[in-house]
Amino acid sequence: MCTDDVCEFTLVVRQARTMTYTGSDGKVNGIEILKNGSLQDKYSLSQGDMDGPIVPVEETITADGVQRNVILVNDQFPGPTLEVMEGAQVVLTVVNKLYREATSLHFHGMYMRGVPYMDGVPYVTQCPILPMHSFTYRFKAEPAGTHWYHSHTGSQKEDGLYGAFIVHKNGIPTTPSLPMFLQDWWHDDFNTIDVDSAFMEHRGPGRFYIPWQNRGFSFDGNELTALNFKSALINGRGRYNNNSAPLTRFEISSGETLRFRLIHAGAEYTFRVSIDAHSMTVVANDGHDVEPVQVQSILVFPGESYDFEVVGDPFNSGTYWIRAQTLWAGKGPDVEPEDRLQEVRAILAYDNAPTDEDPNSAMQTCTENSPCRVLNCPFPAFPAGSNMECIYVSDLNSTEEYSLSDESENEEYFFNFGYQIGSSVNGRKFATPKQPLIFKAPYDITPCEATCETDGCTCTYTAEIPLGKTIRFVLMNLGFGSGGHHVIHLHGYDFRVLAMGFPEYNETTGRWISENADINCGNDNKCGMPSSWNVARPNLNYNRPPTRDTVVIPSRGYTVIEFRSNNPGFWLFHCHQTTHMNEGMSMIIAEALDKLPALPYGFPTCGDFTGTEKPPGGGSGEATTDASKGQSSVTLVELEQIQLIIIIVVSAALSATIAVLAVVVYNGRVNKSKKEKLETPPAAPKSLEDTVIMED
Ligand SMILES: [Cu+2]
């Protein structure tokens, strides 16, 4: 843990293979898992040496026991846990040693106040960090709590590019805590799945695409994801098909209170986490303290975090299963029952428990007299007779007061997250800008035309908000494009959760019947814009509502959030379910554009690979090789010649792809939900140099 005022870190990002081992002779061999769980060098096995070298588990990345690519951070998966004190200045250099891909790092939950260009979103707040280049993030660690860092480029997070970022409160002694990362896991790189997905613009062959009728559904009649479940990991470990791969083990002593920092770093599947024979006391969500609530399990969506405490029972000994199960209940919208347990496990081990045996503990039973409490239901209730009681996140109480500001000072916005034209917000699929927005006008974006309101479209959807107001977002999941729960993350902020609305449902089965009727979102049932409250606004809870940075919108329902605008910048606002985000369920909250801080001297520009020609469409992508720019925080990592050749070839291919994809930039206005608008690009394109403000 760094307790200094300035904390410096270097994170080296590189690709590796799971289930391989580099011997003392430098040779890389595959690994076989023996029945007793030990790992043996495959080469020695192939030589008939059945007692050949046993590979220490800490010297390999086993994942779920199947060999595939993985991204390591400082040779670790998950990446190292970084711990700093609140208010510390963080200086963190990312060294990109991925041969084929650019990258960027987002610090999930950090405000980045005054430094919106450190938020890590490519083409919004910075240029991507090219292979063999590095970039240094500099920001203040605030707010305190459980946070995490992850790649915000492509789907690298899903392949391992993430880790915990813990900010400790000043003046409060730190107690032992353990990150617990959840992740769904496939046996291909996730970008292979993306490329192969029928959802993406390029429409691949759809190897991973499952028709609607065959997808996994939860009992409430909502689709989980279009991707078949394959496997899952807790802190980077799991077992595929009940093999004997090593699992993550958490040590606890009798009488000890252990704090877990549970974070869902995965892509698609929601997990319900429980520990056999132990209750969990939830003390924080998304890093923000709540009044303690004792539950038997927590539903965790991608991007969310929960801190919970477990007490080591003096009467317990040995080992217990920690279980994370998906919400799978059956196939298709009619939820045809199918017996498929989708689960990953870890181990809670008391002192002196045997290390070579699996627990034989049983899952908690929930009875009428002693029902199980489940935190974060995205549906109104579990089926009758399941003896499970829902606690919604909107029921949690923050430890900090919140008061209603003058209602006339409020600005209210309605955003519908759904599949009206595929994953989109208010009927708009997000088009990534071609130059980072943080470079300011002229913006190189795909403007939203007026027809987006009715027809839907792909564009750089942006809503501007003013500074110094109370901003209320009504997050909807309504209309014919609803049908799955979404989990929405706002960059640069945390917010209070004031209300959640659910659909009408069948109390016996728990299945939805009709969508929530509180909101009028137009006659066409597309729920694009504009929307309004149908009757009076529902009761909003101002009695210490919970503070979060990521929140679920129940399918066929809504969630109301509120925050005070105090952070000029371009903030990405998106669903954290990867296939949804990558298909376009994403938008920009642009705040106080006249008050954006100047970019630091020498802030890296993107360039266009060719160095001479302007890109098609007369955009603003001039190459920036001007030495007068002075010191840049990008540096070229020393290269072997062969690596350089690979990069040049890949760059050329990328450049060609970009040229093909480049869209004519319209001079039309940016379409948005409120009265203000982004500056209209001037008729004559300016060079990029003019858009970067240099500080003396
Ligand atoms: Cu979503």
From TrEMBL:
Recorded hits in InterPro entries, A to Z, give: Cu-oxidase-like_N (IPR011707), Cu-oxidase_2nd (IPR001117), Cu-oxidase_C (IPR011706), Cu-oxidase_fam (IPR045087), Cu_oxidase_CS (IPR033138), Cu_oxidase_Cu_BS (IPR002355), Cupredoxin (IPR008972)
- The portions of this protein that span the membrane are 642-666
In its UniProt entry, the species of origin is given as Branchiostoma floridae
- Which family is this protein grouped under? Belongs to the multicopper oxidase family.
Q: Name one GO molecular function term.
A: ferroxidase activity
| Pfam short name (any one) | Cu-oxidase
Q: What is this protein called?
A: ferroxidase
* Sequence ranges assigned to domain Plastocyanin-like in this UniProt record: 59-169, 179-352, 450-591
EC number assigned by the record: 1.16.3.1
